[in-house]
Every structure is written in structure tokens, then in C-alpha cells.
Write a structure and sequence with these properties.
Number of helices: 20
Number of strands: 14
Strand content: 15-25%
Helix content: 40-55%
Largest sheet: 7 strands, antiparallel
Structural class: alpha+beta
Oligomer: single chain
Strand order of the largest sheet: 4-3-2-1-7-6-5
Length: about 575
């Protein structure tokens, strides 16, 4: 409670919303688990289910803590005048049924949860009140400073002379969704950036996402007024293409749009527009709802056909295909690519991030992947808070699982190249869950500007501070990882893609998932023991060679015997290898 002393108004707000704080003798039902009796407690940020002692021992946690921010829907079902069932659905696809005795308690708990989950002010969210039970070795807020990341980005591609770091948006006047710093062509002034920003939706003028062999990948929003010319924007794109003869603009539009591929006007003579139709926010939202419904219906004899009608894997395929197209232009054709999207803060970030994972082996390391998320999603202005807002909110039409779609695509690549990633699927699950509702402030708000106004860095803990603890970091390391410095080309053929069971089925196939995790841990232990044994064998062979040389010098061992020993050692090396 002492955390609320800093925010007395918020404490009063929560007190007004909580109609009931405790319900005893509640029967809990959930998929893949036996029913059990729990005590329900409600705080300003959590629903707490305390599992009661039973004769049958269980591996379940004694308490289940559920953030209200993660709650997606509440449904009341009265069973006569004495009892009823409260069905809770969460954004991470968990579902619970609470059988409650007493209609007054049922209504009070339902009303409380609906109102607490509907709080839309980020300043009221749990990260501002979370007291970490660990001392971070590194401050996650300082791990990925834009200045350092952007310098590495420019120097890594070999074209640092053609690009510069601009602070024209330091006060967020050019674009309130971009960060304080952006990378732009060195020949474009800050004044021209301002003109270019006025030409684009939300002020999101073209900025550098990555350099691959000196070939740029940039992203931007659509023109605010289609067909209207802007000399600053034309100069910007001319500077991006440089001395090259051509470039491609991948125009990411919603599948429902009637747009057709047309040539650009004379202001962009070297650019070719390629229309790419991808799912819109509403289509993604409906698709995830259908997947959730399908995965929770474990007894249906038409499960596969229902899964196909959700079109989720089709969306994954289309996005991966677009990312491969962008990567191919950069790697094989050495042609600049600009990703253009209406808002410039959703699917363009997905495609840009996936293209970098395909091309750049550093993004497939744990640190590099965290840096990619920070740079291409958090600092680039993906509206996490709005996209994962509460059900029934005024901005519900703006909600969509864009970030989950990206993580699913990464999982598909990881499945095809399991030895090329330093991290495991578990990290993707952690990021997916924390993007929805979290103890940490990394995914709070929609923009860097909003986070700065709320003092997120000063008053919350970074997710990276938690993940980069030694004991936590080790849980996400891939024991099969072998650094792969080449480009990896994922297959987008339908037979190469599969449902991400670790995410979508983890709550309905809990025992199978746990068993799979144990098998992976055992495999990891075997691999690590093998590595340790090989290291020990190398050290012992080195010591043996040194002793043999010394023995020959002392006359204890003849040169012929040494030769025979070396031949035997070579046979052993061949056997081990």
C-alpha cells in the first residue's frame, strides 16, 4: 500500500472502483487443469487466486496473480438465485471460470473487474507502483541509448558518410511519434526535414532503419494528401537513392483497400512503387479472436478447418513474404527499399524488423534482438498502449495484435533455423506477455514523448533490467546456438509454417507443454555436458603432448614410442570429430 502514497488521487480512484475485495469458497475451473477451490482477492492492479490445500498434491502455484490490464472480457452467467459463474478471458489467451455462491458477490466482482480493467490512464498502471525484488546489474534504460545504437547502425553498414544523426525532433515538434533522434541523409537539412514531415501522415518522414552493405532500408508514413507534391520530400528520396539508378517503395496497404499499383509522379523518377496488400488492424483483431476461440475448443472434430478459416497463418505468410522481398532487394539486387504505410508505425515496423533478422546475424543474438525491439518498436513509436487497450474502450477499433504477429513470424524463422538464434522461444513468450501487461515500464504508452511526459524512465523499472540478470538471462540462452554469419532465407511455403503451439496452446495443453520444456532442458544439459567433456579432452591432450616432449628429452620415452602415441591420439581426434 505504501507505493500509493506517491499518488493519493490514484489510490482514491482504485478505492472507488473496488466494490468487493475478497470472495471465499470459489470453485476455479480452467482448461487442462482439475477444478479446485480458491479464495479470490482484488487489489488496485491484480486479481489474486489463492489455491486452497487439497489432499491431491499439485504442481500448480499456490497463488495466481493476474494484472487487470491483461483482462480482455468478463461474462456473468447466473445459475438460479444462489450461485453463478464468472467467465474471465485474458489477452494472453488464458481463461478462467469462477463458480461463486451468492448473486451479490458475483455482480460486485464482475463490476469491479470490468471497471479496473477499463482504466486507460497509463499513470495508473502497475509499473509505477511495482517494487522489484532484485537489484539490477545494469540499468535497462541505459542499455540501448539512441546515440550509441545509431552510431553502430551507421558504421555497421559502411555508409556513415551518407547519413547523419539529427536532433531536429528533440522536442517532438516534427513528429510526436518519432523519438528524439533519427537517422536521415546527410545532405538533408533540418529545415527540409520539417517540410518533409508536414507532407507525411503524423510527421513520419523517411528515416533509416538499417544499412545492409551500404544499401539503405528506410520507412515512412503515407503522404498526408495523396498526389500532392512536396519538393523537400522529393529531395529526401533523391538523397536516399543517391547515385543508384533505382529504388523500390513497398507500399503496405490493407487488403481491403481498392488501391492499384501505379507509377509515381515525376518528382520521384528513380523509384518504383510496389503495392503490397497486408492485413489491416481490424482483420488482425478478428483473426486473433478466431484463433483464440479455436484453440480453446479442444474437442472439436473440425479443429483444422476452423484454424484455417482464422487466416492467422495466412497473415504470417504474407508478412514473411514481404520481409523476404525487402531483404532480397537489399542483399541480391543492392537496391534501396522504402517501406510506406498509412500510419508508419505498425506493419512497416514488422517488415523492417524481420528483414533485419534475415540479413543481420547480430539481430539474432540476445543483446541484438533486444536492441532491435527497443530501436524498431519502442523508440520508433509503435503504439503499444493503444494496440493493447481494454475491451470496450473508445479506441477499440485501434486495437490489434501487431507485435504478436511479428513475434510469431520470428518464431517461424527460429523453427526453421534453430541453431542460428542465441535465444529460445521462451524469450518470445516473455516479450509477448509483457507487451500486453507488465510490471515493467518498457512497453508503457504509445510514444517516447508520452513516456518522457510521465517520467517512465525515472519512476519505473525497465524490462531489460530484469531480463539481463545472469540467472534470468541463462534461462533464455539457446544451447544449440552456433553463430551463423550468413543471410538466412526462411521458407514461406504453407507446409513450412505451423501454429505457434508454445503461445496459442500453452494454456490448453499445459502438461504437454511442460513435458516438452523438460525434454528441451534435458537436451540442453546433454549438449552442455558434451561441450564440457570436449573442453576437458582438449586440455588433457595438450597436457599429454607436453609430457611426451618432456619424457623424450629426459630419455624416458623413445621417439618411436612418441610417434605411435601421436598416431593413436590422431585416431582418437578423428573419432571424436
Amino acid at each position: 500500500i505504501h507505493f500509493y502514497k506517491r499518488y493519493p488521487d490514484i489510490e482514491m480512484e482504485f478505492a472507488d472502483l473496488i466494490k468487493i475485495s475478497r470472495v471465499d469458497n470459489v470453485r476455479l475451473r480452467r482448461p487442462a487443469e482439475d477444478p479446485c477451490e480458491v479464495t479470490v482477492a482484488v487489489t488496485g492492479h491484480h486479481l489474486i487466486l489463492s489455491i486452497q490445500e487439497t489432499e491431491n498434491k499439485t504442481e500448480d502455484k499456490r497463488e495466481i496473480w493476474l494484472l487487470h490490464r491483461n483482462l480482455h472480457g468478463v461474462l456473468k452467467d447466473s445459475e438460479g438465485s444462489r450461485s453463478g459463474t464468472l467467465s474471465l478471458k485474458y489477452k494472453d489467451l488464458r481463461s478462467f471460470q469462477l463458480d461463486i455462491i451468492g448473486p451479490d458477490k458475483l455482480v460486485a466482482l464482475a463490476t469491479t473487474l470490468e471497471e479496473l480493467s477499463g482504466v486507460e490512464n497509463p499513470a495508473s498502471s502497475y509499473p509505477f507502483f511495482y517494487n522489484p525484488g532484485f537489484k539490477a546489474l545494469e540499468d535497462g534504460w541505459c542499455l540501448f541509448r539512441p546515440e550509441e545504437e545509431f552510431v553502430a547502425l551507421m558504421s555497421g553498414g559502411g555508409g556513415e558518410a551518407d547519413w547523419r544523426m539529427s536532433k531536429a525532433n528533440a522536442e517532438y515538434k516534427l513528429s510526436d511519434s518519432y523519438g528524439r533522434m533519427v537517422i536521415v541523409p546527410s545532405g538533408i537539412s533540418d529545415t527540409q526535414l520539417a517540410g518533409c514531415g508536414r507532407h507525411r501522415v503524423g510527421g513520419r518522414f523517411p528515416v533509416l532503419a538499417c544499412l545492409h552493405k551500404d544499401v539503405p532500408l528506410v520507412r515512412a508514413s503515407q503522404a498526408a494528401v495523396p498526389g500532392k507534391r512536396c519538393s523537400d520530400d522529393e529531395k529526401m528520396l533523391a538523397a536516399v537513392i543517391g547515385s543508384r539508378k533505382r529504388g523500390f517503395i513497398l507500399d503496405l496497404v490493407e487488403r481491403s483497400t481498392n488501391s492499384k499499383s501505379t507509377d509515381l509522379d515525376s518528382g520521384y523518377p528513380h523509384w518504383k512503387r510496389v503495392l503490397t496488400k497486408l492485413p489491416g488492424l481490424a482483420e488482425l483483431r478478428d483473426s486473433l479472436a478466431a484463433v483464440s476461440s479455436t484453440c480453446n475448443d479442444t474437442v472439436s472434430d473440425k479443429w483444422l478447418s476452423r484454424l484455417a478459416t482464422t487466416k492467422w497463418l495466412s497473415h504470417v505468410k504474407d508478412v514473411l513474404n514481404t520481409a523476404c522481398l525487402a531483404a532480397q532487394c537489399l542483399e541480391k539486387d543492392s537496391v534501396p527499399v522504402m517501406l510506406v504505410e498509412q500510419s508508419g508505425c505498425d506493419l512497416s515496423l514488422v517488415v523492417s524488423s524481420l528483414a533485419q533478422i534475415i540479413l543481420n546475424p547480430d539481430t539474432r543474438t540476445l543483446h541484438g534482438f533486444e536492441a532491435l525491439i527497443e530501436r524498431e518498436w519502442v523508440q520508433a513509436g509503435h503504439p503499444f498502449w493503444t494496440r493493447h487497450g481494454p475491451a470496450g474502450a473508445p479506441k477499440q477499433s485501434l486495437q490489434a495484435p501487431v507485435f504478436l504477429l511479428f513475434l510469431d513470424c520470428v518464431h517461424q524463422i527460429y523453427t526453421q533455423f534453430p541453431c542460428s538464434f542465441e535465444f529460445t522461444e521462451k524469450l518470445l513468450l516473455v516479450l509477448a506477455d509483457h507487451s500486453l501487461a507488465s510490471n515493467f515500464g518498457t512497453f508503457l504508452c504509445d510514444t517516447e514523448k508520452s513516456r518522457a511526459e510521465l517520467g517512465v524512465k525515472e519512476h519505473t523499472v525497465s524490462l531489460w533490467s530484469y531480463l539481463n540478470q545472469v540467472e534470468i538471462l541463462s534461462q533464455h540462452l539457446n544451447c544449440l546456438y552456433l553463430p551463423n554469419k550468413v543471410v538466412i532465407w526462411p521458407s514461406v511455403a504453407p507446409m513450412s509454417l505451423s501454429l505457434w503451439e508454445g503461445y496459442f496452446l500453452r494454456w490448453v495443453q499445459h502438461k504437454a507443454v511442460v513435458a516438452g520444456a523438460k525434454e528441451r532442458r534435458r537436451m540442453g544439459e546433454i549438449v552442455n555436458r558434451n561441450k564440457d567433456a570436449q573442453t576437458l579432452a582438449l586440455r588433457l591432450r595438450k597436457e599429454l603432448r607436453e609430457l611426451m616432449v618432456e619424457a623424450v628429452e629426459l630419455g624416458v620415452l623413445r621417439q618411436e614410442d612418441k610417434t605411435e602415441e601421436q598416431e593413436e591420439e590422431q585416431e582418437l581426434d578423428d573419432l571424436l570429430n
